[in-house]
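User: Okay, second chain of the day. Same drill as before: sequence in, structure tokens out.
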Amino acid sequence: MTKKLFALLMVVAMLAMAFVGCGAKEEGQTNQEVMQEAATQNTNTVEETIIEGEADSYDAHAIIDALELEGGLKIAFIVKTLTNPFFVAMEEGVREYVREEDEWTTLQCDNEAAVMLTKAEDAANGDFDIILMTPINSSDIAPIEAAYNNGAMVVLLDTTVVDEGIQYCAGTVCTDNYMAGFMCGEAFIEDMMEKYGEVKGQVVLFENPQGLVTLARIQGFEDAIADYVESGDIEIAYREVGKGQVDTGLVFMETVLQRFTEVGKGEGSLVGVMSMNDPSAQGCANALDQAGYTAEDCFIYGVDGSNESLDYIADNMQRGTSLQYPGMMAARGLAIAYQKLAGVELSDEECFLEISTTYIDAENAADYRDFSYIGE
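Assistant: Same drill. Structure tokens below.
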């Protein structure tokens, strides 16, 4: 079963299920037994989990509420930036799933690694029990190590780190980023066939190989189109490293357009753009629009599924995106941390998670808003 099909089947199943509450802890039950019972209840929330191979529904509220934990925990959410709607939605997820009796705060880092290190050290010295963190670079483990060495339980959201840094993490919750990029590559091939009846032309890539997340997305896209690149029908004509922001995507695309005399005419012309995330894809779309082109002339793909990109797709400026579930990441990350603090034994498979993604284009964009799994 493909991940795309699995996600669609999960949508159908979720809409069909009725909400069933999780029972309270019974006398003599251990925390581990309560967790197992809660995880198998047919409970469904907007942040329903879609993890490949995870058959049971998962209600983070039920699992967290069933734990025997004293109140008054301190939690820090250290985030790359709040200028990206994706991370704003993740912060909303933290707000939703933190227990009422606990104190939490958000520390944003303006996409600067040095600032994140300072924030992590401050949080670690501030007696925080749980630190949720979205690393800026996968190779930068200093903030994670600083938090860990000061006794905080660290869970990474959205971005994982190199192997040397995993020892400092209680868990990680990320998108299946390889599949997110692969779905965009599959869609590009289908879009080319639909428009031209063949797959020929040149594509460009806007990437950031310093992040394992963005590296996996671009690799997934490249693997999806690999047969056509090998045959010479598709050429990766240009690639550039940058930051996943609207302004950087705009500058990248302006540079690309200076290199091409033809856009959207099949063989020998620019026909596709894969960008590391939605904000940078929007910047690419803005540059194309200013040059008089649309997503029908040059197919632009990103990853996130933000409302802004859904609007771009509806306006025929961006061709597609792979949806992420940031609120779900916050729910799962908090559940991991709370359970571990309560002494619940979790396997690596339960602590280091990849959440499936859903591909969005003009046909289904209206069904997904606010990073919601089931739409509005």
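Residues 1-49 have pLDDT under 50 and may be disordered.

User: Thanks, on to the next one.
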